[in-house]
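Hi W.,

Here's what went into the run:
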Amino acid sequence: MQITLNNRIEILDIEKDKLTINELLKLKKYSFTRLIVKINGKIVKREHFDDITFSENDNVEVIHMISGG
Amino acid sequence: MNFLEIKSKLKNKTLGIAGCGGLGSNAAVALARVGIGKLIIADFDKIEESNLNRQYFFFNQIGQYKAAALKENILRINPAVNVEEHIVTLTPARIKNLFIDCDIIIEAFDKAEMKEMIAETVLTEFPLKPLICGVGLAGWGGNDLIKVEIHDNLYIVGDHVSETSENDPPIAPRVGIVANMMANVVLEILLGKDK
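Here's what came out:
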């Protein structure tokens, strides 16, 4: 599956044609626990990380939120 | 644009600041100096001596509520600013109520889970309102690593990786740089691009 991930073309080496956010986070081994995720510019709330999916050519943004202020 | 024109453009603008710590207090003061019309500031916490390494407070204000002390300091600099202070713990419902009339919101929390909470809330409830978050400001140096990343109406300011910890604390110069860069983004949104 080819998507745009954080403004870069990313080829995900998987068989499925749809992926949830949690599947993406696991696949990409993202280590930060606090995130803002957007699919095609629209926010995906954490409660939907297991059910909202993206597919070929979607634009996915994963933005880390880390402590300090 | 001369300074009088800048001030007159900012006079009718309202900025929400969620958190009055290192980012919030410094960004608020910068924008008060240039004449922002109204600041809605919120924080539940009281000033501790350890905060004075980066936050815009004074030694004799230790023990006071941050939101109240920040209002006092802003008015000492520019009494023309309308400051509305709220001593509360921010929740999604309170964010929705307090910041509904703001032109822009600054996220100035300390904890990552609060940053996530406000970003989720603002992007869901006010998708057209610009939200500026500070992410990655621990330690010192690395000036060239601090940048602004834009995701539609979400602006992320910081180095994006330096999480604060016991051995990498937030201290004045770097926190101040990020806070002032956030204030600078506010001006860019309200006044248009200059550079």
